[in-house]
Automatic annotation (TrEMBL):
Domain of life: Bacteria
Keywords: Hydrolase, Metal-binding
Sequence ranges assigned to domain Fumarylacetoacetase-like C-terminal in this UniProt record: 26-221
Chain segments carrying region Disordered: 45-64
Name the record gives this protein: FAA hydrolase family protein
Organism: Borborobacter arsenicus
One Pfam short name: FAA_hydrolase
Length: 231
């Protein structure tokens, strides 16, 4: 039996290797930094974070200009630590959760904020605000074997050379082991899964021509530009 067409396999570079990391699923954590919850004025600070997904082909790597998406006048940036899963995990306890991590990267959760807010106000899913083409640009994956785990350290984003976001990974409400354990209670995690772990305060709008650089202490910075608006 022949395939009707050849599916596109999305991959990310692996630092120090000629191999590439094939992406299976993209999970995202909502409201995982206290100051970001306060700046958005949404939800109760005592609520636990929740999860949503982006399509696999929303992932783009460095060197790809991101088109300003249609159906929005308020595209915004959110810098995040990305956890790359390297082993299967179902119901993994917190104390063993880091065993399934292959590595870490720097990502940006691009958001159509106006569409997200409309969905939130109507009690509708967030897909139109979060899960669009090129909405998950991501830098290369750094293997745990080379850098260890990323549980603390500065996280920041600069826009056109001016810093807009700064925080520390230690400020997460849920840390990576807790996120992995929680997710694996509801989904079977598999090699190739990416988890975007939430953003610190300072999110803001983008326009065509903007250049962003996302950084996390101990990882290579990741840069990309916003291209013309899709008509």
């Amino acid at each position: 039996m022949a395939l009707l067409f050849n599916p596109n396999v999305v991959t990310l570079p692996i630092v120090g290797s000629q191999d590439r990391f094939p992406v299976r699923r993209v999970y995202c954590v909502g409201r995982n930094y206290l100051e970001h919850i306060r700046e958005m004025k949404e939800g109760d600070e005592r609520d636990p974070p929740f999860f949503f997904q982006k399509p696999t082909d929303s992932v783009t790597s460095e060197g790809t200009d991101i088109s300003y998406p249609p159906q929005t006048d308020d595209l915004q940036f959110e810098v995040e630590l990305v956890v790359a899963i390297g082993s299967s995990a179902t119901g993994v306890p917190v104390e063993r959760a880091l065993d399934v991590v292959f590595g870490y990267g720097v990502g940006v959760d691009l958001t159509r904020r106006d569409r997200q807010r409309e969905s939130f106000a109507k009690g509708l899913p967030w897909e139109i605000g979060k899960s669009f083409d090129q909405s998950a640009p991501c830098g290369p994956i750094h293997p745990v074997a080379a850098i260890g785990h990323r549980l603390a350290g500065a996280i920041s984003l600069s826009l056109n050379g001016a810093e807009r976001q700064r925080g520390d990974l230690a400020q997460m409400i849920w840390n990576p082991p807790e996120i992995i354990s929680n997710l694996s209670a509801s989904y079977r995690l598999e090699p190739g899964d990416l988890i975007m772990t939430g953003t610190p305060a300072g999110v803001g709008p983008l326009v065509p021509g903007d250049k962003l650089t996302a950084s996390i202490e101990g990882l290579a910075p990741f840069s990309f530009s916003i291209g013309p608006k899709v008509s």
